[in-house]
Specification:
By secondary structure, this protein is an alpha/beta fold. Helices cover 33% and strands 22% of the residues.
């Protein structure tokens, strides 16, 4: 082999010819697929292999990567790579690694290549045994919201980031940050936040010392990865060496006694945590309660929508600020505290940080909700170490479920063997537990180390807790951990994942929360159970449908499994679980309270323009203000009082009849007033809020409000108020003018629109216009007009339109959007942003 360190890899990449090929073995894993995204961003040609296709390989294929299924020496040789990188899960006798060795091609472990890429910018490494993915994802999400536009490599898919790894060459996007969060530009940090690269630094294989970051966060240190390290002392030495290589701020958790011992006296070290001596001290606040007691935002796709975690941060003896997190549990508060501490050190104000982290909904398989209805909630979580499991169960217990049912898959024989006693004690909060077979993760079996043995160890721990509980009744100890004195009802072994899924389903009762835990393939069972529940939930939904219908007036429309494709101008999309057209503001208020009471997510739907609904449809309730009572239009003098459901074309027509100018541009916008207020829709150089005098809206608690337009903050293609409020209507203002003059201008706009826009079904303009060039002109110059994916096509009339040419699916449209974005990025260096709103499940 020709092994290389991170410095040598950096030199190789820096001197490589443009378009050089890098071959990635194990490209379907989150770590290696993230490398592939970074290399594609840098202009390299990426070829790779893995045993099966998945979401990661699909994304990479759409970006132009060549991916082989299976590992074969000849496909590596045919690629002529300058470098071969591989996942730690790949065995060294892999035929492609052997071929690289034979052909004298340099080889690199994934972490070393990541370190080389991080060193190209100002690295922020997140390290520790537990919580790295959530913390690094939150940090990337926050910095993106704050306008820093960082590079990042996250160890899992993150729904709120377009992809889980990105190499950004743009220094910042301050104007967007200013608009979205109303940040005073004079308060923005200096160059300290430019060219940042956030990365998880993995300690599992001794590569932590390869990273030399500008800043670092160290979350915890634990007896983990003992298949590689001799003992805990060896792990601590690895982290101590890592700290020595951190140039600036080292942010560490003061609640971890080993970290405190390692770093408390280190110059420049910054501590955070619940510990009273932490530099950034965290204080957990009482929960706000369920959704019925607070107004969630339109963006609220939280994994745990029924809970919002509040905490305070104190710094230098003074309260720094109040913060809200949509993830639950003290561990997530601690992770967020690390992010707050680092961002504050980088110069951001507490209020800016609070805005930036508030809507974060987590990474995939980190408290990820797969299913929720009036009966059950099903979650999938990556936790596989006893410390992680205990913290996760404590967090989920706070949801107040009737029972917490837990399915666990041990990960690695070595971990199970070395931590058997800890595993036996960490499930004390579970009301019922199933243990699946051990996921080997390429390890050989260890005789005597089995999941059956672990089940027996857990049962023994339950018996011990039962005995201690009996003793405590006679002589309770004030220092006894009472959470460990409640024995779990049962623990069972599952011979296969299919048996596991069936056993869990058979045991479920209304009010249960079900949690699947493990780093292996147990996630398949979790997703299969969620799919089964969605299919069988007809009877439950029928009951929910009946209750909802009874709570609204007879004039309201309530339907189940409503097809949404017919309700969008693009004519694509799946079904809505429940579809409601409330007949009045009172009915809308009752509907919102019903959703809160039953913990149902809801989505607002206008006339379906500027909207792309995914093929899986929309879970929960879809609310459409399409009833005639929301579509009233009255003219008094030069004012038009309009309901949210009024079509904009109807507004322009009535204004023409009344001889009111200034509203002609609305003729060409296909949506309703409510949706257009939310998007601040525009055409022909004019914007809706140019003609709005007063608005009426409802908060998510069901209370109506009015406000004059001058008090409402609006921006390009958006009105922030309607991210967490529902538009009920508005008063528009016109300018008295001769009706024939208004009619002539409307005819001029109409002719221009039909000459420049396609007649086929579309969602309107797909992309926002970049500053350098209009999106349509850019797409035209790139020669992409007429480009097709399935039934979707880039319009040959206007490049910024994607039309439904031949029974397109939402997947067709999304794939075509990605083709255009990648072409614009590779050919012009322009990152196109979608203007169309994308909703639903794929």
């Amino acid at each position: 082999m020709i092994p290389m360190n991170s410095d040598q890899l950096g030199q190789l990449l820096a001197t490589a010819s443009p378009g050089s090929t890098i071959y990635l073995v194990g490209i379907g894993g989150c770590g290696v697929s993230g490398l592939a995204h970074l290399l594609l961003d840098l202009g390299f040609r990426v070829v790779g292999s893995d045993l099966a296709a998945n979401e990661e390989t699909r994304q990479l294929t759409e970006r132009g990567a060549i991916i082989h299924l299976g590992h074969h020496a000849e496909q590596l040789a045919a690629a002529h790579p300058i470098l071969v990188a591989y996942s730690s899960a790949i065995r060294l006798d892999n035929p492609e690694l052997k071929a690289a060795e034979r052909l004298q091609i340099p080889l690199a472990r994934r972490a070393l290549l990541l370190a080389a890429l991080v060193h190209r910018q100002r690295g922020i490494c997140v390290a520790g045994m537990h919580g790295k993915t959530t913390t690094s994802a939150l940090l990337a999400f926050a910095l993106e919201n704050l306008g820093a536009k960082p590079s990042y490599a996250i160890g899992a898919l993150v729904p709120q980031l377009a992809r889980h790894a990105r190499f950004s060459t743009s220094s910042s996007r301050r104007e967007e940050a200013l608009a979205e969060f109303q940040i005073d530009q004079s308060l923005l940090p200096s160059a300290a936040t430019e060219n940042l690269f956030i990365a998880e630094a993995d300690e599992s294989d001794g590569t932590l010392s390869e990273f030399r970051p500008q800043h670092a966060i160290v979350l915890n240190v634990d007896a983990e990865h003992l298949d590689f390290y001799a003992n805990l002392d060896a792990i601590c030495r690895e982290f101590a060496n890592f700290a020595q290589q951190t140039h600036d701020a080292l942010v560490f958790c003061a609640d971890d006694p080993r970290l405190a011992e390692l770093f408390a006296r280190r110059p420049g070290a910054v501590s955070y945590g619940f510990h009273p001596l932490a530099n950034y001290r965290l204080v957990k606040c009482e929960p706000r309660g369920s959704r019925g007691n607070e107004a969630p935002s339109d963006k609220d796709q939280s994994l745990l929508t029924s809970a919002a975690t509040r905490f305070e941060v104190w710094h230098s003896g003074q309260k720094l600020g109040d913060f809200t997190l949509r993830l639950i549990g003290e561990k997530n508060i601690s992770n967020a505290g690390a992010v707050v501490a680092l961002l504050h050190r980088l110069g951001y104000a507490a209020g800016e940080i609070a805005h930036a982290i508030a809507d974060f909904t987590g990474a995939a398989r980190r408290q990820q909700e797969l299913f929720s209805d009036a009966r059950f909630r099903v979650f999938d979580d990556y936790g596989h170490h006893p410390a992680e499991i205990q913290a996760t169960l404590q967090a989920f217990k706070s949801l107040g479920a009737r029972r917490l049912l837990v399915a666990f898959q041990p990960h690695r024989f070595t971990r199970t063997q070395s931590l058997m006693s800890e595993f036996a004690e960490c499930f004390g909060q579970a009301d019922k537990l199933w243990v699946a077979g051990i996921y080997a993760a390429s390890e050989p079996e260890i005789p005597g180390v089995t999941s059956e043995r672990l089940v027996e160890a857990i049962r023994a721990a339950i018996r011990r807790r039962g005995s201690r509980r009996e003793e405590a009744q006679f002589s309770p100890s004030p220092n006894e951990d009472q959470s460990l004195l409640t024995p779990s009802a049962t623990v069972e072994h599952a011979a296969s994942l299919d048996d596991l899924r069936q056993a869990v389903r058979a045991a479920m009762l209304p009010g249960d929360v079900v949690l699947f835990l493990g780093a292996g393939d147990i996630t398949k069972a979790a997703h299969e159970l969620a799919a089964e529940l969605r299919e069988e939930s007809v009877s439950s939904n029928e009951q929910l449908l009946a209750e909802l219908t009874a709570s609204l007036s007879p004039e309201s429309i309530v339907r189940r499994d409503e097809p949404l494709a017919k309700r969008t101008t693009l004519r694509v999309g799946g079904k809505a679980d429940l579809y409601v057209e409330p007949a009045s503001e009172d009915d809308l208020s009752r509907l919102l309270k019903f959703c809160a009471r039953h913990q149902l997510k809801f989505t607002l739907l206008g006339r379906g323009s500027n909207l792309l609904i995914k093929d899986g449809g929309i879970r929960g309730v879809v609310i459409c203000l399409n009833h005639p009572n929301f579509s009233r239009l009255e003219i008094t003098g030069d004012k038009l009082s309009c309901g949210a459901g009024v079509k904009l074309k109807a507004v322009s027509v009535e204004a023409r009849r009344a001889g009111l100018a200034g509203l002609e541009f609305l003729e060409g916008i296909p949506g309703s007033l409510g949706g257009s207020m939310r998007m601040n829709a525009g055409a022909m150089g004019s914007w809706l809020f140019d003609v709005v005098d007063k608005i009426r809206f409802m908060d998510y608690a069901g209370v109506a409000h009015e406000r004059v337009a001058s008090e409402v903050n609006v921006e390009y293609r958006g009105c922030p108020l309607f991210k967490n409020h529902i538009a009920l209507g508005a008063v528009l203002k016109g300018q008295p003018t001769a009706a024939e003059t208004v009619a002539a201008r409307m005819q001029q706009y109409s002719s221009k629109r039909w000459e420049s826009q396609p007649k086929e079904p579309s969602a309107g303009c797909i992309f926002k216009n970049p500053k350098a060039i209009p999106a349509g002109k850019l797409i035209d110059e790139l020669g992409l007009k007429g480009t097709r994916v399935g039934g979707a096509m880039v319009s040959d009339v206007h490049g910024n339109f994607i039309v439904n040419k031949d029974n397109a699916t939402a997947s067709d449209v999304l794939s075509l959007i990605e083709v255009v974005k990648q072409r614009a990025k590779s050919a012009r260096g322009i990152e196109l942003e979608t203007e169309v709103e994308i909703l639903g499940e794929g």
